[in-house]
From TrEMBL:
Residues the UniProt record annotates as site (Transition state stabilizer): H17
Gene this chain is encoded by: coaD
Positions that bind ATP: T9, F10, H17, G88, V89, R90, E98, W123, S124, Y125, V126, S127, S128, T129
Record: residues binding substrate: T9, K41, L73, R87
Subunit organization: Homohexamer.
Function summary: Reversibly transfers an adenylyl group from ATP to 4'-phosphopantetheine, yielding dephospho-CoA (dPCoA) and pyrophosphate.
Protein name (database record): Phosphopantetheine adenylyltransferase
A Pfam family assignment: CTP_transf_like
GO cellular component: cytoplasm
Keywords: ATP-binding, Coenzyme A biosynthesis, Cytoplasm, Magnesium, Nucleotide-binding, Nucleotidyltransferase, Transferase
Organism: Canicola haemoglobinophilus
Class of the enzyme per the UniProt entry, highest EC level: transferase
């Protein structure tokens, strides 16, 4: 059984993230979506809310598990006996940043590789940062996020 991990802050999870998760679920036996606390960021949703939104967004995928984590990713990779780290890469800037992390994670995990998946074309411009920015400026994000996320964002506005 090949188990991979897809880590991120997922604040909020977007349709682009769900696309990467769905495609990974076809390729691998088990996908763990690991929602990071990321104390250096000011999230819209707390860790528990982000884990729940991710869980609801991928509930239709039987071989996907969602966890929250506050530890170093490398420690989670070792603990869960992960075979590879999945990362979505939209741009060359993403690639350069992710390549540095891949080298570091390979060192810290004794050789676990990072696999880069480009997004589907229709999601290539979508990021959580863009969704938050549009939302905070009262824009329509309904096409960019799962329905459960849209509902949670609407509750924030009330």
């Amino acid at each position: 059984m090949t188990t991979v991990i897809y880590p991120g802050t997922f604040d909020p999870i977007t349709n682009g993230h769900v696309d990467i998760i769905q495609r990974s679920a076809v390729l691998f036996s088990k996908v763990i979506v690991a929602v990071a606390k990321s104390p250096s960021k000011q999230p819209l949703f707390n860790l528990e809310q982000r884990v729940e939104l991710a869980r609801l967004s991928v509930a239709h995928l039987e071989n996907v598990e969602v966890i929250g984590f506050e530890d170093l990713l490398a420690n989670v990779v070792k603990e869960k006996q992960i075979h590879a780290i999945i990362r979505g890469v939209r741009t060359t800037m993403d690639f350069e940043y992710e390549l540095q992390l891949a080298h570091l994670n390979r060192l810290l995990t004794n050789g676990v590789e990072s696999l880069f998946l480009p997004p589907a074309e229709k999601w290539s411009y979508v990021s959580s940062t863009i969704v938050r920015d549009i939302f905070l400026h009262q824009g329509d994000v309904s096409q960019l996020v799962p329905t459960v996320v849209l509902q949670a964002l609407e509750r924030l506005n009330k």
